[in-house]
Every structure is written in C-alpha cells, then in structure tokens.
Amino acid sequence: MTASRSARGRRAATQAGPLARVKVDVDAADQLVYKISCTACTVRSGKPWSAYRPGEDNGYLAAMDRWTFHLVERHPDSEAPCLAFLEEAQQRLHERREAGTTANE
Ligand SMILES: [Zn+2]
Fold first, then answer.
1. DSSP label at 87?
2. In which band, very low, low, confident or very high, does the pLDDT at 23 lie, cut at 50, 70 and 90?
3. How far, in Å, from the CA of 97 to the mean position of ligand 1?
4. Dist. CA 55–CA 63, nearest whole Å
5. Helix (H, G, I), strand (E, B), or coil: what is residue 50?
6. pLDDT value at position 56?
7. How much distance in Å is there from the Cα of 58 to the middle of ligand 1?
C-alpha cells in the first residue's frame, strides 16, 4: 500500500509539472486522496491553491483535470505533461456536467 501510494504520488507529480506539489493521502475509509497544490498561487485565506479529490484512479483524474484547468487559466505560459491531455480533461468535465445529479462530483 505504502509503496504504491508513493509511486502514484510520483506519477502524479511528474504529470502535474514543476508548479505542482502533489500529495497522496489515505482517508478514514482507507481511500486514496489526491491533493495537488500550486506553489505559485494562494487563495484568499493565504493557503496554497489546491485540488483535493478522493478515490483511486477516478480521484487521480479528477484532481489532475482540475489542476490542468488551473494551469491553463492562471499559468498559460507554463509547461506540464498533463497539458497534453487538456482536450480529454475538457471532455470529462463535459461528461460530468451532462451526467448532472447522478455524478459523483
Ligand atoms: Zn497557480
């Protein structure tokens, strides 16, 4: 569990690029929780901007999608491997909206 957790964290950090700080936690229900925070942005409370999503690969994708949109909006000059999947991320966002109240999000 611990090994795969850090491997997942490294994979996510590589995808998210140099501006991101990635943490993979385990919540009370033993679920993986992905947290991607921005090293350049703070929100009003003074904490770093972050995306926080629970749940294995779904959580990974959801957090990474949020992060990808953050990069596009706030750091359009930055480069990260996840930006290659922007189109897929937008497609997933669209599908989640289409699914409406039945979605987990
Ligand atoms: Zn940022």
1. H
2. very high
3. 24
4. 10
5. strand
6. 72
7. 22
